[in-house]
Design goal:
This is Prenylcysteine oxidase-like. Its cofactor is FAD. It holds the Pfam family Prenylcys_lyase. This protein has 276 residues and is of the alpha+beta class. It folds into two domains: 175 residues, FAD/NAD(P)-binding domain (3-Layer(bba) Sandwich); 98 residues, no CATH class. Helices cover 21% and strands 27% of the residues. The strands form three sheets. Strands 7-8-9-6-10 form a five-stranded antiparallel β-sheet. It binds flavin-adenine dinucleotide.
Length: 276
């Protein structure tokens, strides 16, 4: 099972290196706005500060204290899904009050990955190709060694691809995405690029430090309080979060409607195997 988990993580981390990837036309941000629209959900933009259960009926309700752009207030909710990593290094700032979640400290602190987006001319000599016209790669991936200061360099395509689009050639100015564990200093940028017009830097708490012995955190933290991002310990990608979200939506629905026969179905694995 552990070998299987490590394989899945490795496969997910290499997925971005394939050349037949799918992308969302217009950009990944459309996934979020599209989902909100389809779900007809009411979005409240706020920072959640604390979650505390209140007991009046059979199941607890949850009081969420949150801060919007203009005020700090609280509201009661029947079902809560936490969809942000709870590891200390991610600093979600959510506090649990009045109950103890079923973990002491979540495993897998998050790796910091710095994304540097550069519009400029790649220094192909750095990769052993003095003539940029002979440089055959759209992306370069590295393995972790002390003297290599970046994880990957890849040419980036626009989110809207027009007919007749062609990827910029290495001898032309193009947009490149560099991932590195630390912010790049000027000398490192100068090593990777002959010259550049613009540089944008964003530091992400990107994915958990993976190990082969850690299990996945619980999905149910308390009755009707669910945690989505534990799935990232198996592999961190939008698709993984979507799978976890669908599972939680089904679980929350069945729990709420007391359809206990639909939860932890004993013969499910057998039925899935025979369905396929
Ligand atoms: C640099 C980088 C590149 C990636 N590239 C890809 C890719 O090409 N394809 C792919 O599939 N995946 C990619 N991933 C992984 C992908 O981004 C994640 O798997 C995905 O974003 C997880 O989605 P999520 O909604 O579960 O969590 P997140 O995207 O982490 O969203 C959590 C949200 O919760 C909010 N939040 C946190 N705390 C609070 C609080 N207290 N109150 C209110 N809101 C809060 C945060 O602001 C954030 O908006 C990439 C990740 C990184 C860092």
């Amino acid at each position: 099972m552990c070998v299987m988990c490590v394989c899945v993580k490795g496969a997910v981390s290499l997925a971005g290196a394939q050349n037949n990837l799918w992308a969302v036309e217009g950009g990944n941000k459309l996934v979020c706005s599209g989902l909100l629209k389809t779900a007809n959900a009411n979005l409240l933009q706020a920072q959640v500060n604390s979650i505390s259960p209140l007991y009046s009926g059979e199941a607890p309700q949850y009081q969420l204290s949150f801060t919007t752009a203009s005020e700090t207030k609280s509201e009661l909710y029947d079902i809560v899904v936490l969809a942000t990593p709870l590891q200390a290094s991610v600093r979600s700032g959510v506090q649990f009050q009045g109950f103890t979640p079923p973990f002491d400290e979540l495993p897998g602190n998050y790796h910091s990955t710095v994304a540097t987006i550069v519009h400029g001319y790649l220094n192909t000599s750095f990769f052993g190709f003095p003539d940029p016209r002979l440089f055959p790669f759209a992306s370069v991936l590295t393995t972790e060694t002390l003297d290599v200061f970046f994880n990957s360099v890849a040419s980036v395509c626009p989110v809207n691809i027009s007919t007749g689009f062609r990827r910029k050639q290495p001898q032309e100015a193009g947009v490149y995405k560099v991932f590195s564990p630390q912010p790049l200093v000027k000398a490192q940028l100068k090593a990777l690029f002959r010259s550049y017009y613009s540089v944008q830097v964003t530091e992400w708490q990107a994915y958990p430090c993976y190990g082969s012995s850690q299990g996945l955190p619980p999905v149910e933290l308390h009755p009707n309080l669910y945690y989505l991002n534990g799935i990232e310990l198996a592999g961190s990608a939008m698709e993984m979060s979507s799978v976890a979200a669908k599972n939680i939506a089904l679980l929350a629905y069945h729990r709420w409607n007391r359809q206990t026969d639909m939860v932890d179905q004993k013969d499910l694995m057998h039925r899935i195997k025979t369905e396929l």
